[in-house]
Design a protein that fits this description.
Layout: E1 4-9, H1 13-23, E2 29-32, E3 46-47, H2 49-57, H3 61-66, E4 70-72, E5 74-79, E6 84-89, E7 96-98, H4 101-113, E8 118-121, E9 124-133, E10 136-143, E11 146-157, H5 164-168, E12 173-187, E13 197-201, E14 207-213, E15 216-223, H6 229-234, H7 244-255, E16 261-270, E17 274-275, E18 278-280, E19 286-287, H8 295-312, H9 317-347, H10 351-366, H11 368-378, H12 385-402, H13 416-421, H14 424-455, H15 461-467
Parallel strand pairs: 1-2, 1-11, 2-8, 5-13, 11-18
Antiparallel strand pairs: 3-7, 4-7, 5-6, 9-10, 10-11, 12-15, 12-16, 13-14, 14-15, 16-19, 17-18
Length: 468
């Protein structure tokens, strides 16, 4: 097969967006898609306003307008104890979209296949990365039972959270399996706020619900590892957090075909997003619990950032990938840390997490600035780790105030210990992100200039580092 500029592994939302972004730069793109049945996948159905803007910016405006999507104006967070609902709207009256996964992804793939410069190979998969350095890559792929080899200036791994290509590249990842997600469809009339995404927190199980088409809503129930749909059938009391009408719809859906969709919930963060002339985008680079609904918005941000980096350094792929890493790596870390902290707060059953939920409720109800900042983080409008850490500390502060002893509740201070202990992971993530960014700055501002001078014979690296 003839050589191309870019090979993209994966034809999901991340792969389609990246193919469109790089084809717009005049690059020849080979999009290799395994051809999985997207009607059976439980992922990627809620799109924040930032993701909608990125899709339109990538030239998919006609696809977005043709979707039979439902508007999403923000989140409705339903607390079980006390029974309270907090509405978190998107900023500036923006609106997101929600629709069934296959209805979203298939039109994107069909549209990008028509783009000039894009070649789509369906039912094909990368089988080996034979060579990868700063001058380019050589890889082998299988298409219709025939092995082929191709060379490219750039390889993009957009093949999802399990990412076989990431493993071929030898990139390690931090991986934690959290829970199992069960997804089923119900009548959307049972949702309290049809134009919002719903989060039901504080009960035995966490649940997420949103409309995906007229009259139809998706309900996603978070189950402990090893659980199945039979767990909910045998223990219906686990659903008591849901409103009665929605609870009845869920129980009805469990008894009728088709069988509920199942997926695992994982935290994944790759050790790096680039190696040689290969780069990771979307879930291949970072993946988290779906409660924030940030997966698609994040992958579209990745595609736009990679496009900007290659536009800035069109003849220097390694420099472009470094620029992409600098733009997106902190955001990917923030996304995973935010989802992890929020999931613990929403689903934890000990006294400390109960107090944290009370603090979250109090913070959102009494601080409009706090509610706005939290929603900006959830919607991927703000991806700064320091903002996430600051907001978490504010919530902990409100929780501690709520733990003040009184005559009626003299023992609530016992919850302070696990509450304070919960501050550790977010602060550790913030420190790790800062250290990584400082290392990138040191390499860019100090090491590279010194070695550039060394190659020209005007400086000795060891002496230069000693003097600095």
């Amino acid at each position: 097969m003839r050589d191309v500029d870019v090979v993209i592994a994966g034809g999901g939302p991340a792969g389609c967006a990246t193919a469109a972004a790089l084809a717009d730069l005049g690059l020849s793109v080979l999009l290799v898609d395994a051809g999985v049945d997207r009607h059976k996948q439980l992922s990627g159905e809620l799109l924040h306003p930032a993701g909608v803007r990125d899709l339109r910016g990538l030239g998919f405006g006609d696809v977005v307008d043709a979707w039979k999507a439902r508007p999403v104006r923000g989140f409705a967070v339903v607390f079980s104890s006390p029974a309270r609902t907090v509405l978190l709207p998107y900023g500036h009256g923006a609106t997101g979209l929600s629709l069934e996964h296959a209805t979203l992804t298939i039109p994107l793939l069909e549209a990008v296949a028509r783009r000039p410069g894009v070649t789509l190979l369906a039912r094909a998969r990368v089988t080996a990365v034979e060579h990868n350095d700063e001058r380019g890559v050589r890889l082998r792929f299988s298409h219709e039972g025939v092995d082929q080899t191709v060379r490219a200036r750039l390889l993009v791994a957009a093949d999802g959270r399990a990412s076989p290509v990431r493993r071929m590249l030898g990139i390690a990842e931090h991986f934690t399996r959290i829970s199992t997600m069960l997804g089923l469809t119900v009548d959307s009339a049972c949702l309290p706020y049809p134009d919002h995404g719903h989060q039901f927190v504080g009960g035995p199980l966490y649940a997420l619900a949103y409309a995906i088409e007229p009259g139809v809503a998706r309900v996603m129930v978070d189950l402990p590892l090893g659980s199945t749909a039979d767990t909910l059938k045998e223990r219906p009391e686990l659903l008591r957090t849901l409103p009665p009408a929605l609870r009845s719809e869920v129980r009805r859906a469990l008894e009728q075909p088709p069988a509920p969709r199942m997926a695992s919930n994982d935290d994944r963060l790759s050790a790096t997003v680039r190696v040689g002339s290969a780069v990771l985008v979307g879930d291949a680079a970072s993946c988290c619990h779906p409660l924030t609904g940030s997966g698609m918005a994040s992958c579209f941000h990745d595609a736009r950032a990679l496009q900007d980096a290659l536009r800035q350094h069109p003849e220097d792929v390694p420099r472009a990938l470094e620029s992409y890493e600098r733009a997106r790596r902190p955001a990917q870390r923030t996304r995973v840390a935010l989802a992890s902290a929020l999931y613990d707060a929403c689903s934890g059953q000990d006294e400390g997490m109960g107090a944290l939920r009370q603090g979250l409720l109090h913070y959102w109800e009494h601080s409009p600035r706090g509610a706005s900042a939290s929603m900006a983080l959830l919607a991927s409008e703000d991806s700064r780790m320091r903002v996430m850490a600051r907001e978490y500390l504010c919530v902990v502060g409100h929780a501690l105030v709520g733990l003040r002893p009184s005559r009626r509740q003299p023992v609530r201070l016992r919850a302070a210990v696990p509450l304070l202990r919960s501050v550790g992971p977010p602060l550790r993530d913030a420190v790790a992100s800062t250290v990584e960014q400082m290392g990138n700055w040191w390499h860019r501002r100090v090491r590279r200039p010194v070695y550039t001078l060394a190659r020209s014979g005007r400086a000795l690296p060891r002496r230069a580092f000693a003097s600095s």
